[in-house]
Amino acid sequence: MELLFTILLITTSLLMILLVLLHKGRGGGLSDMFGGGVSSSLGGSSVAERNLDRFTIGTGVIWFATVIALGLLKAY
């Protein structure tokens, strides 16, 4: 059981890294320092961006639950 949660944790961690890097920069952060602020904002988020947000949040919830489950398994 512990092996399954460990594999799930590694998979969701890598997926979270990928999803966060796919997000568009909002400005004022590191993305502006490296030229990310050049793109123009069209005043709203597209359907693809909203779906990416939902998928990122869902993956984060799974990641968090996996961390909690592994902690509980290690405690007992």
Structure description:
The two termini are 13 Å apart. The protein has one domain. The relative contact order is 0.19. The protein has 3 helices and no strands. The radius of gyration is 17 Å and the shape is elongated. By secondary structure, the protein is mainly alpha-helical.
Q: What is the SS-derived class?
A: mainly alpha
DSSP E strands, number: 0
Helix content: over 70%
How would the global form be characterised? elongated
How many distinct folded domains?
A: 1
Order of helices and strands: HHH
Low-confidence stretches: none
Q: Provide the residue-averaged pLDDT.
A: 83
Keywords, separated by commas or semicolons:
76 residues; mainly alpha; 3 helices; 71% helix; 0% strand; elongated
Structure summarized in a few sentences:
This protein is mainly alpha-helical. The protein has helices spanning 2-22, 30-33, 47-75.
SSE inventory with pairings:
Layout: H1 2-22, H2 30-33, H3 47-75
